[in-house]
Amino acid sequence: MNNLQILMAERIKKRVEKILTSSDTIDNCVMIISYAYQWVEAADPKYKSDFSSIIFYRNWLFHIQLTEGNIPKKLKEIFRQFSIPESEQNTVDFVAKLLSTKKLRNELKIIFKNIQCDFPILDSLSQWKRFMGYICSELLNKPLEISECRELLINSRSAGDYILPKRLCLVKTEKDSASRDIEFEIQLHKLIVSIGGEIEEKESVVKVRGQLPLDENYNDFLKV
User: Fold this and answer.
1) pLDDT digit string, tens, across residues 29-42
2) Which residue ranges make up each domain of the chain?
3) pTM, to two decimals
């Protein structure tokens, strides 16, 4: 840890410990992500990429709607990464990896170990699911949107068909009366880049869904 992180560690530790002694609420869970983010912000820039899930979830939680105006550069790069000329399934797989709760949990483990704060939620599958349930419920009405998705194309892109994200959101689904799951939904636009570099946007908009990886089994949960 650098000097700034050391100074912040005790303050964050006290605040998180206070939260843990109170009842778990959406606001408390959101603040835990916020405190973790503060510690990351104080890190040496070369290490910040190791905490991409913390940065992603914090930015998503603290905006009513993420658009070009308030999507940080790193998030724009994330959108570009899954602007791929291959298939809708590849896009779904990429977003599932991006939203990985396992990666988020591992990053939180590193942070709380560094600030020497006991955070038992990270070692209990049931408590972790409850924690992420609160986080996801806060995100249900906070879509990530790109109003001009063609801007995500890099000028050097070769000719071909491209699948670009227009909107990413979480949605509730009820598979049966006894279960309720949260899925992510991606609204995709298909663009064609000609050999000359001209971009034609197809009118058709495709919506695809994927399962948010919240329901890992206990054996997978124990794996780092």
Assistant:
1) 999 999 999 999 88
2) 3-214
3) 0.76
